[in-house]
Design goal:
- The complex is a heterodimer of chains A (113) and B (114).
- Chain A is mostly beta strands.
- In chain A, 0% of the residues lie in helices and 51% in strands.
- Chain B has 114 residues and is mostly beta strands.
- In chain B, strands 2, 5, 6, 10, 11 and 12 form a six-stranded mixed beta sheet that branches.
- In chain B, β7 and β8 form a beta hairpin.
- Classes of the chains: A mainly beta (113), B mainly beta (114).
- At the A-B interface, β4, β5, β9 and β10 of A face β5, β6 and β11 of B.
């Protein structure tokens, strides 16, 4: 157990639907990062939050949004889902915004049918 | 822009032998960090080793060591005494410090032959 908890582990949904992925960071970590890993692809950075504020944004689609709550857990919302959104979504956390230590959760596998 | 390149999509090694995975990167930052992550079939991302750019000494973690060539922007991973459990996808990653994100290469799939 890495200390970063992601739920659910698996999610199957239909095109056009909306889903929410949840991440609880490791205790004490203020930063949360979201990554997308499509089949046979590397990890693409989506977005980072630090202590409730958006800190950096990557190749995140407008249909996707995220937030970090006062208790530091984060949610990634994916809407108007398309088949191409099927992927493994990872959350990672670190202690400080510029900390070089990242701990990854076990991921949420999203399948859009 | 910061980039990470892994030019070996697949590698194979015999059990107990040594293998080296290559990685090159590009960044304009003076202070940055480099990582190797392992992703086994379970898809969990596991940190193997990390290197601070300001440190000249190469990082070592048990059977894993790196060859960090800062001027050449090269960061290779050496796995000694390879074990069956080392079979996985290995990702090289760069944290440019001020960029607030970890940039990954495309990965090298390592097979370990018994």
């Amino acid at each position: 157990d890495s200390g970063v908890t992601q739920t659910p582990k698996h999610l199957i949904t239909a095109t056009g639907q909306r889903v929410t992925l949840r991440c609880s960071p490791r205790s004490g970590d203020l930063s949360v990062y979201w990554y997308q890993q499509s089949l046979d692809q590397g990890l693409q950075f989506l977005i980072q939050y630090y202590n409730g504020e958006e800190r950096a944004k990557g190749n995140i689609l407008e249909r996707f949004s995220a937030q970090q709550f006062p208790d530091l857990h984060s949610e990634l919302n994916l809407s108007s889902l398309e088949l191409g959104d099927s992927a493994l979504y990872f959350c990672a956390s670190s202690a400080r915004s510029y900390d070089y230590g990242y701990t990854f959760g076990s991921g949420t596998r999203l399948t859009v049918v | 822009a910061q980039t990470v390149t892994q030019s070996q999509p697949e590698m194979s090694v015999q059990e107990a032998e040594t293998v080296t995975l290559s990685c090159t990167y590009d960044t304009s930052e003076s202070d940055y960090y480099l990582f190797w992550y392992k992703q086994p079939p379970s898809r969990q991302m596991i940190l193997v080793i990390r290197q601070e750019a300001y440190k000249q000494q190469n990082a070592t973690e048990n059977r894993f060591s790196v060859n960090f060539q800062k001027a050449a922007k090269s960061f290779s991973l050496k796995i000694s005494d390879s074990q069956l459990g080392d079979a996985a996808m290995y990702f090289c990653a760069l944290d440019g410090g001020a960029t607030n994100k970890l940039i990954f290469g495309t990965g090298t799939l390592l097979a370990v032959q018994p």
